[in-house]
Each structure stands twice: as structure tokens, then as C-alpha cells.
């Protein structure tokens, strides 16, 4: 009797599969560090500053979302909410002149590297006072004087560019290292492979970091990429790491050690940081690809709340002090909204500006 | 006539062709379980299952190439790019492989594949998400390029594209997906590739406009009509093969032509068609052909700059005025 | 004037600029230890060492991007593609990044990089090794495109390109590398980007011809001269910025124009320039502008087919005859 | 005292480094199989046929080289000489309807998959009687009716296409598998990474084979790619293999087992076969990047000679019989040269043919 031919299936099936009531998790979080901030070399003021930063990123984006919904600006809006421990832990671990480049989910990175709430909000609003003069919008925050080279919209496209920063740093012998952040979805781009090979072969001082937040748009990590992401390093003999991205101290601890190694030995590193995206991919995402239960589980690990609790538990700050910080930030963000709203749009001539550093040339300007 | 959204017309075309031919399948980012980033493939997974509606990783080069290989083996892939800006990563498969395989193997294999997805700008998405690539692909021998403006054209032409035995680049627009229009209910409705359509008859000037720009041209024509200028609008629908005959015929009547397209100026569709017109209808032209297209700068994010950047009806009217010496 | 091969002129340009600026470096496949697939970089490794002359893997996308990043940090990379056919794999870095970074960051970074290598066909290398990409890159805002025809132009323009503060695509030709010509011995010889050169003065017809096609045009002009037709030849040298002024000035004298370029017809340089000419010099034209370019088919391998495929002097003469109604 | 800054070096340095007289080897050959042909399930006739094939490939190319030098044809000519055990061992291990695709170094593959010496030589000459009607030349041999899909000139470009064949085979459920061969240089292309990820994720029945012949043009393997090539599979959890490609029986044994596994379980495989390119990359290669000693060492492992010796040692064929085979092949090849020489070039109209399977369209044919 002929066996009934089974229908071919290519991509692993997502939520449609029956999971017997178990919460279907797109990523498993490794444990957070057990070390206290002092053991990590951080002062009380440092951790307060970290909380401050994370809270700013959170509130900035919550307000941005509101403004978007009010129709204050258009385009895409990809929120970093839930991932703030990564930007914050990293920036505290790096030197100020180390280079950072990331994808379009870039507000948190911009703020922690010195884009003011005003400049950031104005950019979202497309105003001339924005960090990128309103030319870039949400996806292209940048502050290059602070070595934050911006957000990029082509998935994986900025990976070789991050490698290029490391190339330049090695060429110039300036002691700076480069760090390049991207999503789990970007792991599947050929650019990653080419860049990792050259980085390892040429010993480029670059940290390539996957912010694995469980999803590439509506596709769970395990539906778009095989195996454990951090293990990709194996094929290149590259050093790698995997750690929890919902705890800023864990991120700090690991990134610090990695940055030291990379700087000291001029080598690349491939890092997977597990985190979770609380909001939809962008503003128009019905989020049917994940369960409410999964989201709730991760919300219990909220990095901002966790840091707040840490401050209280360790008696680094009292509730009152925290309230004061929160209020100040709240005001700053509201002021930023006002600033953005009242700022002028770019002049029409700006359309033709910023294309060239050298002699500008516009073909057939008619 | 049924009234359908652009995306529904596309879906009907895909659905009918999948139904008709088991070898037709769809793949791309978010096309299956998410039902399509812009819902063009909504419901197809439920209907045709996981074998024929396939979510891909963000690996444009890789999955375009898998499509090319599958097509060489006789399947008929419909490969969706989330937008054609990302297809730049797959350019090697489209330009160096899909378009050339047949010729360089002396006809021993062919590549019946459709690459489709949104083209050109879709509002304030910034420099990397706003480029029109139709002219670029039309430059390369072996590729057909379709960029329809209305649901009816979209349905009839997409069905043709899927049945076509060679590679077709089929371009859509995020901003047109919701556009409603009457769509033929004819069974197996097919529009042949390479036939332009005169969408408005007129005596005074010929406006050639493709894709999203057709609607700009239409607005302009309506305003011009109030001013007593009677514009004829031709929608080529297919960028390549380009139906020059229909355009030349019109110019022999109107003696004036404006081309509206969404590409940047250098070597865009407008320059190609403008060049051909002056060569083929030199003695019929009462004024030089004018073009309305994007300026030679990247797409800005800021709303007022973006609005300035994108061609509008005012630009078209100005160009018409120029060719009419008004 | 020294007589140099094209490749030697290029090497001199690179050498002088590397000598002048420590931040200039060269990378690409086989550029260092092999001394360059076509020997353009011969001797540079010995002179400048492994830090500044760098062999890459076959990873066009990756090393183009590393170049872009290095340029953003202030270095001045010269990235060699073994041919521009392979640069298609790097298109995302060139089109979506190098040309757009500055604009989308509001001017906060720039990308002073030169992408260079042979363009277009080089004899019987088949469909995937023969395409001219100058027109394609010229389509995109933010890129300058240079395609010189003679050693002197090559040297002066490559030095300009390396010093240019933005991205330049610099195109050469495998078949011209051995071509000898007089090269200025002026210290620090610079030719500004965007200036055409009238290489033959004539009264009867303007021939615009770039790169390898300039030499075809020259042959044609010599033959035409014997027939009493006095052709003016303009070599734009830079595809973009395109020096339309010089062309229009010539047409106001000759009233006729033929454009010879090595791209396929649809949206190639010829169509852009032809379009602009009809628009800017309509009343001066005594005949429609004609073009001589590749046919709309892939490059065949077979010698007689290849010879048929590539434009030759006969094609140019026919086009001149057409515009002169001979 | 300030340490003198060491000058940065990116790419590993090749022959310029001092190797203290040791032969600098670009690849190390794994040992050949110890099994005899009968143990591998091959008959005496089979191994004679294998020798026949390998000798044909060798002589075809040696004559082709002569004809090239005589100016009979132009373009590139990449010789497979030294690598014939791979094509031959593989084709004997596969079913006749399994798909094969390769790069531009394709003559051997074409011949062993049924392109006659005549069709092959005529293709080199650009004649209408060539396997690709003279349209493709040396780089684009093909015989698709025999499931040899041709040679491709963009390094790495055909890798996803090979994956696409496997996709189609799985889709059609036809029991065929796909095999995709490429050079060590192609390993560095992003297309490989994307294809491997999808192949493993989608369980595509494809064997991806690196013919590591030590060099990518003038660059030794270890100068362009890090680590051991076959270990790249690790990052994807893909099955992999590494074996000797200078012995047809070794190739046969391994490829047979792999093909069985791939066919049975619908999985991909990543394989590195070590071999050596005896000639220059193409015809104009001064070969300064390797030592004469290295070349000589590998020439001692010549796959054609080895097979001949095996036939003699195992008493499968006598010297006289081998001579007869060689003479026949010699004649066939000479006849092929004559055939190619006397064949007509394509008609001018052929320029416009073979672009389209459907309605042909040539823009502005003027
Ligand atoms: C090359 C390319 N392909 C597709 C897209 C559309 N796209 C934008 S974001 C995205 C998902 C990326 O997911 P991931 O890398 O995990 O980042 P996350 O959004 O989770 O931060 C996709 C498919 C794109 N921008 N670029
Ligand atoms: C994308 C691309 N880049 C560069 C080239 C030029 N090129 C042709 S062959 C080759 C070396 C390839 O080496 P390998 O893959 O090891 O194959 P082998 O020649 O050894 O068989 C190069 C650089 C090309 N054809 N395609
Ligand atoms: Mg993600
Ligand atoms: Mg090799």
C-alpha cells in the first residue's frame, strides 16, 4: 500500500500549532547577574543615572506614541520599550568615544548617547531643530559628534558599516572600539556573514550585538533563523556571549568585559542579548503572532521597574527621590513635545541641502 | 463590475492563478502567518497551506535566488519583496541571474518568476524607503516591468505576469493598496503585458503617467479641463515592454507631451520615453517634451519637504503650461 | 607630456594621493599581493605596506560597507571592484547607504569614498560580465559617476575623485587599461569633476561619446571626415554631474546630435542626454537626436554575435547619416 | 618609554612571509579511503568508466588550452585540471536525475553529465553547435535535460539557485536531490549564509559542496576565509563532511552516503572537498602566489594517474586496455576540435534569440 505522501512544509509553523496550553515563548531569558553594582565598579550615582536614562527613554517613547496617535507626525514609529537595559547598560560600559551604530529602533540609543529629548522629539516631528534636521525622522536619529552614528532602515545594512568603523579605528590606532546593534531578523542577512568573516580575519575591534527580542516583525526568532543565534560565531572561531538584556547591570557587566577584551586584543565579538519587544513592531501591528500570556510574562521582567526596585532594595534612593527623578523627566519630555510642536519646519531650500559635503550637484533642477 | 481595493484585486489574481496551477506559490517576508505586511496575501495561507504560502527570513538575496532556482525547475514562484527598496539586496539574482540565465544557456532553461511588492515612496519613510525602481529594472534586457495604477489593471496584469514564461517585475504601491476601483468580473480576466491604455481622451496635450503618478495626472487634467485645456492621459501600465505606438498616435493628435513618473530624473522612464518621442515624432511636436518627476535628491522625512519632493498636480499643470506655451 | 598606459595613469593618481594623504587606502580583491587583477595597483603594496593596500575576500557587499563605515570615520577608501558587474552585490551599500547617509542624518556624516573598477564589456566574457552600469548609478541622487576615455582624463579625474568629499563611482575598462596616451606632467594634475571636453572640433554634427565609445566615435569621425562630414566630438568624461552646457553650445553650432554610449537603451545615458537636448535646444535641432548603444539583449559569447552586439564605427556613421539626412 | 606602535595589518600575509623553507600549503589533504571499489558497490566496469570520464575531462581541457593559445577562441578559460575526481566521483554517486549546478570552472561537470566533447568544444569556439549554442562559452556549459544546470560566473550567485532546485524537488516530491558546487572563494559571499540558514530551516534536500582547491584566484584559502571551511556548518546545526578530493573512490564513497541521507531525510549538507588547481586561475595568471614545490607535491596526488594506477594494481584493466581507452579519447577530443572548428557560427539573428521563452520583446530594436 502506498504511503500517503505528506504535504511539504518549509517554514516552521508558528502559533497555529497546538502548544497544549503552555506559554509559547519566542526567547528564553538567561539569568541576570547576581552581582551588586559596587562589585561591578558602579557608584550609587552611576546606577541612579542609569535609572534616569532608562526612565527617560521609556517616557520619551510613551509620549512619542501619544503624539503619533494624535497625528503630530507620520511615517514609521518603532518603539524600543522593553529593551532599554541594553542601550543603557552598554553606554555605561563603553568609553564615550567608542562608536555605536544601530537599526531603526534607535530612540533609546540616541537619548542615552546625548540627543536631548527636545532634539529627539523635534526629529520625530520633522522639525528643523531635530537631531537630523528633520531629514531622517524616527529611523535616523544620530549624533555623530558623540559617536552615535545613527539608526538605519535597511535590515542588516549597517552591519558592515559598523565593521568599517572598527576598521578605521584600527587603521587610525585611536584606541576606540566600535559596537554594532541589530535585531534577530538581521541575523539572516548575508551582510552579517561577510562582515563576521572579514572581522575575524582582519581582527577588527568590533562588538556585533544581536538584540534578540523574540520577533522579526511577526516572525518568531525560531521561525526565521536556525539554532541558537550566538552559536553562529562558532563557524568563524569568533568569541561570543549570550546574556540577559532585561537587566541593565547584567548588560553592563558583560559589555564591560567584552569591550575590554576587544580593545585590548583588537578582536571582534559576536553577542546575543535576549530581550523582549513590548509593543508591536511598528504602530500598525495587530500582534496576532504572539499570545497575551507571553507578553505578560516578559512584562514582569520590565527593565525600568527592575532598576527602580533595585534602587529601593539597595537603599540607593528613596521613593521620594525616585519620584522626583520621574517628575523631572516627565517635565523634560513634555517640554520636548512643546519644543517640537513649536519648532519651525525646515525651509523649502533645505530639500536640496545636506546631500553633499563637497560641491553640491543636483541634476536637472527644474 | 465589482468594486475592489487594489490589494484585493491583487489577491484575487494570485488566488485564481494558485487555484489554476499547482506550481504557483508565494513566498516572502510575512506573507503567510501575518497575512502579508500590507495584507495582499491575506487568507492565502488558510486556503493553500504551508507548502504554497511561505514566510521567509529577511534574506532578500537568498530567497530571490531560491525563487529563481525553483522557477528553472518549472515552478512558478511569486516572490514578494516587502518593498522594492529591499530588493536592491537581491539585485544580483534579478539582474545577473533571472534576466540572463536563459540567454547564456542558449535557451536551455527559463525563469518564469514574478517579483512583486510596493515600489516608490509611501509617505514619510525617509531616504531608504522611498525610491522608485521601475526604470532601473527596465534598463536590463530580459525583464518585463509592470507598474499599474488601478485595481482592474492590477488584476489583469498580475494574472498575465504569473502566466508569463519569463521574469516579470510587478510593482505596486503601499499608498494605492486601499484604492478602490471597478474590476472586471470576466472569468479569467487577463490584460496582455505591454499594452498602454488611453484613460482620458483629449485633444490638446498628451500626458503619459504611470503608477501612483497616474492619479496626479488625473487631478491635473481635471483642473486643466476647467481652464479649457483638454488633456489626453495615457497610462502605459507596463513600463517594459513600453507601448510607444499608443503614445506616438496620441502625440500626432495633440502635438505636445508631458511625462509624469515617480523616478529620479537621470535615466528615468520619462527620459527614455521623451527621447523616443523626439526621435519618432519630431515633426509632430509643437513643443519639447517635458517631464515631471522626483528631484535629484533623496526623500526627506519632514512633511513639508516630502510634499515638495513628491510630484503633484501643480507640477503637472506647470509642465502642461510649458508645452502649451501658456 | 609623458606617455602612459591607462592603468599607469590610474596608478599614478592613486599613488600620488596615497602619498599626499595618509588616510587614503586601497582595498579590493587581489589588489595587494597579486598587484591587481588588471595591474592597476601594481607596486602599491610594496610602497605602502599591508595596512594601506588590502586584499579582500569575495564579499562585495561586506567590503563596500566596511569602506562606507571607514569613510564616515574620516578615512578615504578607494574600493576596487574586480568589475562593476560584481558590484551589483554591493548595490545596497552604494545605493541605500553611501548615497543617502549624509542626507538622512541631516548632514552629520559624509562618505568620501571612491568605488572603482572596470565597467561594461571586455570581449567575449558572456552575459554576466559585460554590462555597463554608469547610467544606472547616475540615476541615484548623491553619487557622482566618472567614466573617462583616455589616460590623461583618467589621472586628473581619479585624483579629483579621491579628494572629493562625497561618494564617487569611477569606471574604467579592461580593454582600455593598455591604451597609451599623453598624460600631463603638471605637478598635482587635477581635472575638475563635471567638465566635458571637446575632443574634436567640427561644424556639421555633435557626437557625444563616453568611455570606450569615445574611441569608436573617433574612428567614425575620421571616416566621416573623408566623406566631408565634420563631426565635433564631446567626451563628457563625467556621466554625473553631466556637463550639458558644453553639449548644448555645440548643438547650437551643429544643429545635429548623435549620442554614443555603452549601456543598453532603456534609460541609458543617451536617453537622458537626448531628452535634455530636445528640451533645452528644441529650436536649434535640425533633426531628432539619435543614439547608438547596445541592443536590448544580453551579451553573447560567440565572437560574431558579440561583434554585432557592441556598437562600432559603422553604427555611429549610420546614426550621423540619419541626423544629416544623408 | 613609549612603545613603538605596530603598523596595523588587516589581511593575513601570504607568501611574502618567511616560511623557513617549509612548503607553504594552502590546503591539507585528508587521507583517501582505504576501501576497494567492490566494497563501495562499484563494479570493474564502473571504475573503468570513471577512469574513462576523468581522462576525457583531462584531455578535453588540455586540448582546449592549446586551442585557446592558438587563438581559436577568446574570453576566459578556467581549467578544472586536478579536480576531476570530484565531478566524476559525484556523478557516479548521484542518480541521473539529481540536479547539479556549479560555477564557471565547469567543463568537467558538463562532460561527465553528458555534454559530448563535440558540443563542449564547439561551445568554447562559440559555435552554433555548442551545448549552449555558443551563447555561453566556457563559463556557461549546460545540459539541462540531463539535470546539469550549468556553470555560472558570479562567484556565489548560483548558491541560492541550487537551493531553489532543492526547494522545487521537495515541493514536487519527486525524490530528486540537488547538489551545488562552488569554490573556496565563494564561501565568503553572503548568499551562502542566507541559503544555508533557509536550507536548514526549511529542510531542503541539497548538498552544498565547497571544492576547496586552495586558492581563490591569487588568494590562498586561509587569507580570505577564517577557520576550517567545513566548520561553518556548525553555526547552523547542519550536517557536514570533509574529505579528500584527489581520489575518485573517496569522493564516490562520501557523496553516496551523503546523497542517501539527504534524499532519505530531506536535509541539507555542507561539504568541503579538498583538492588542488593545477593550472592558473584562468589563462593569464602568473601564479606568483604559490611555490613550485607546492604544485609539485599536489601533482604527485594526480587523480587521473591515481585511478589509472588503481586499475592496474587491482588488475581491473591491463596497460594495453588503458592505452586503448586513452587513444579513443584522444581521437574523440581531436575530432571534437575538428567539429568545433568546422561548425558554423550562429546566424546574426541568433543575437536576438533565446532571451525569452514566452513572447519575445526587444526594446527599441533599431
Ligand atoms: C532589507 C530589509 N528587508 C525588509 C525590511 C522590512 N522590515 C523592517 S523591520 C523588519 C523586521 C526586523 O526585525 P529584527 O531585525 O528582529 O528587529 P526588531 O524590529 O525586532 O528590532 C522588517 C522585515 C527592511 N527594512 N529591510
Ligand atoms: C561576485 C564576483 N566577484 C568576483 C569575481 C571575479 N572572480 C572570478 S573567479 C574568482 C575567484 C574564485 O575562487 P574560488 O571560488 O575559490 O573558485 P576557483 O576559481 O578556485 O574554482 C574571482 C574573484 C566574480 N566572478 N564574481
Ligand atoms: Mg527582533
Ligand atoms: Mg578556489
Tell me about this structure:
The complex is a heterotetramer, with two copies of chain A (about 375 residues) and two copies of chain B (about 325 residues). Chain A is α/β, with parallel strands linked by helices and about 375 residues long. Chain A has a single domain (about 40-340), classed as Rossmann fold (3-Layer(aba) Sandwich). In chain A, about 40% of the residues lie in helices and about 10% in strands. Chain A has eleven helices and eight strands. Chain A has helices at about 45-70, 85-95, 105-110, 115-125, 160-170, 190-200, 220-225, 250-265, 290-300, 305-315, 320-340; strands at about 100-105, 150, 180-185, 205-210, 215, 220, 240-245, 270-275. In chain A, the strands form two sheets. Chain A has a six-stranded parallel β-sheet, with helices on both faces. In chain A, strands 5-6 form a two-stranded antiparallel sheet. In chain A, helix 8 links the parallel strand 7 (about 240-245) and strand 8. The longest helix of chain A has 26 residues, at about 45-70. The N and C termini of chain A lie far apart (about 75 Å). Chain B is α/β, with parallel strands linked by helices. Chain B folds into two domains: about 1-185, 3-Layer(aba) Sandwich (Rossmann fold); about 195-325, Rossmann fold, CATH 3.40.50.920. Chain B has twelve helices and 14 strands. Chain B has helices spanning about 5-20, 45-50, 60-70, 90-100, 100-105, 135-140, 150-165, 210-225, 245-255, 270-280, 305-310, 315-325; strands spanning about 1-5, 25-30, 55, 75-80, 115-120, 145, 170, 180-185, 195-200, 205-210, 230-235, 240, 255-260, 290. In chain B, the strands form three sheets. In chain B, strands 3-2-4-5-7-6-12 form a seven-stranded mixed β-sheet, sandwiched between helices. In chain B, strands 9-11-10-13-14 form a five-stranded mixed β-sheet, with helices on both faces. In chain B, strand 13 (about 255-260), helix 10 (about 270-280) and strand 14 form a beta-alpha-beta unit. The longest helix of chain B has 16 residues, at about 210-225. Chain B is globular and about 60 Å long. Chain B starts with a strand and ends with a helix. The model of chain B has no long low-confidence stretch (mean pLDDT about 100). Classes of the chains: A alpha/beta (about 375), B alpha/beta (about 325). Chains in contact: A-B, A-C, A-D, B-C, B-D, C-D. Chains C and D meet through helix 11 of C and loops of D. One thiamine diphosphate sits at the interface of chains D and C.
Amino acid at each position: 500500500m502506498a504511503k500517503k505522501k505528506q504535504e511539504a512544509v518549509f517554514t516552521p509553523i508558528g502559533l497555529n500549532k497546538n502548544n497544549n496550553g503552555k506559554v509559547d515563548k519566542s526567547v528564553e531569558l538567561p539569568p541576570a547577574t547576581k552581582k551588586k553594582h559596587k562589585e561591578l565598579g558602579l557608584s550609587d550615582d552611576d546606577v541612579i543615572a542609569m535609572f534616569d536614562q532608562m526612565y527617560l527613554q521609556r517616557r520619551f517613547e510613551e509620549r512619542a506614541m501619544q503624539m503619533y496617535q494624535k497625528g503630530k507626525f507620520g511615517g514609521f514609529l518603532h518603539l524600543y520599550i522593553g529593551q532599554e537595559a541594553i542601550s543603557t547598560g552598554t553606554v555605561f560600559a563603553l568609553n564615550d568615544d567608542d562608536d555605536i551604530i544601530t537599526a531603526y529602533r534607535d530612540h533609546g540609543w540616541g537619548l542615552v548617547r546625548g540627543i536631548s529629548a527636545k532634539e529627539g522629539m523635534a526629529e520625530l516631528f520633522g522639525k528643523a531643530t531635530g537631531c537630523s534636521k528633520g531629514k531622517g525622522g524616527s529611523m535616523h536619529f544620530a549624533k555623530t559628534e558623540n559617536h552615535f552614528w545613527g539608526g538605519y532602515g535597511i535590515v542588516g545594512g549597517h552591519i558592515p558599516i559598523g565593521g568599517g568603523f572598527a576598521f578605521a579605528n584600527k587603521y587610525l590606532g585611536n584606541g576606540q572600539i566600535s559596537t554594532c546593534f541589530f535585531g534577530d531578523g538581521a541575523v539572516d542577512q548575508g551582510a552579517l556573514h561577510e562582515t563576521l568573516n572579514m572581522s575575524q580575519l582582519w581582527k577588527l575591534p568590533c562588538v556585533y550585538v544581536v538584540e534578540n527580542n523574540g520577533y522579526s516583525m511577526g516572525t518568531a526568532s525560531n521561525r526565521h533563523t536556525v539554532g541558537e543565534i550566538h552559536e553562529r560565531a562558532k563557524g568563524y572561531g569568533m568569541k561570543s556571549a549570550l546574556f540577559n538584556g532585561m537587566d541593565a547591570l547584567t548588560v553592563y557587566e558583560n559589555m564591560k568585559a567584552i569591550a575590554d577584551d576587544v580593545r585590548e586584543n583588537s578582536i571582534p565579538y559576536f553577542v546575543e542579548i535576549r530581550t523582549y519587544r513590548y509593543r508591536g513592531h511598528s504602530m500598525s501591528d495587530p500582534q496576532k503572532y504572539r499570545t497575551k500570556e507571553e507578553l505578560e510574562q516578559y512584562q514582569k521582567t520590565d527593565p525600568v521597574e527592575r532598576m527602580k526596585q533595585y534602587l529601593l532594595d539597595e537603599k540607593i534612593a528613596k521613593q521620594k527621590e525616585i519620584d522626583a527623578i520621574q517628575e523631572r523627566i516627565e517635565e523634560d519630555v513634555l517640554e520636548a513635545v512643546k519644543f517640537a510642536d513649536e519648532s519651525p519646519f525646515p525651509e523649502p531650500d533645505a530639500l536640496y541641502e545636506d546631500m553633499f559635503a563637497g560641491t553640491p550637484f543636483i541634476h536637472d533642477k527644474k | 463590475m465589482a468594486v475592489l481595493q487594489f490589494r484585493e484585486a491583487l489577491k484575487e489574481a494570485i488566488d485564481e492563478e494558485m487555484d489554476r496551477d499547482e506550481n504557483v506559490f508565494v513566498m516572502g517576508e510575512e506573507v503567510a502567518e501575518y497575512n502579508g505586511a500590507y495584507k495582499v496575501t491575506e487568507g492565502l495561507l488558510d486556503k493553500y497551506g504551508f507548502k504554497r504560502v511561505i514566510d521567509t527570513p529577511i534574506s532578500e538575496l537568498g530567497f530571490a535566488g531560491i525563487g529563481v532556482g525553483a522557477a528553472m525547475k518549472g515552478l512558478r514562484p511569486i516572490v514578494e519583496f516587502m518593498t522594492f527598496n529591499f530588493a536592491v539586496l537581491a539585485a544580483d539574482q534579478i539582474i545577473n541571474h533571472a534576466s540572463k540565465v536563459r540567454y547564456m544557456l542558449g535557451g536551455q532553461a527559463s525563469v518564469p518568476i514574478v517579483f512583486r511588492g510596493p515600489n516608490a515612496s509611501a509617505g514619510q519613510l525617509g531616504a531608504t524607503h522611498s525610491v522608485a525602481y521601475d526604470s532601473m529594472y527596465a534598463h536590463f534586457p530580459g525583464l518585463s516591468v509592470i507598474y499599474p495604477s488601478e485595481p482592474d489593471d492590477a488584476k489583469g496584469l498580475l494574472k498575465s505576469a504569473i502566466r508569463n514564461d519569463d521574469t516579470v517585475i510587478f510593482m505596486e504601491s503601499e499608498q494605492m493598496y486601499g484604492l478602490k476601483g471597478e474590476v472586471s468580473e470576466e472569468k479569467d480576466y487577463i490584460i496582455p503585458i505591454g499594452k498602454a491604455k488611453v484613460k482620458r481622451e483629449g485633444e490638446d496635450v498628451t500626458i503619459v503617467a504611470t503608477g501612483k503618478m497616474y492619479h496626479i495626472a488625473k487631478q491635473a487634467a481635471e483642473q486643466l479641463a476647467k481652464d479649457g485645456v483638454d488633456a489626453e492621459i495615457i497610462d502605459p501600465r507596463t513600463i517594459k515592454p513600453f507601448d510607444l505606438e499608443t503614445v506616438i498616435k496620441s502625440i500626432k493628435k495633440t502635438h505636445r507631451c508631458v511625462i509624469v513618473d515617480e523616478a529620479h530624473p537621470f535615466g528615468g522612464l520619462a527620459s527614455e520615453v521623451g527621447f523616443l518621442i523626439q526621435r519618432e515624432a519630431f515633426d509632430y511636436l509643437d513643443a519639447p517634451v517635458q517631464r515631471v518627476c522626483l528631484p535629484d535628491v533623496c526623500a526627506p522625512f519632514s512633511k513639508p519637504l516630502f510634499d515638495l519632493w513628491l510630484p503633484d498636480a501643480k507640477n503637472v499643470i506647470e509642465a502642461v503650461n510649458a508645452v502649451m506655451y501658456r
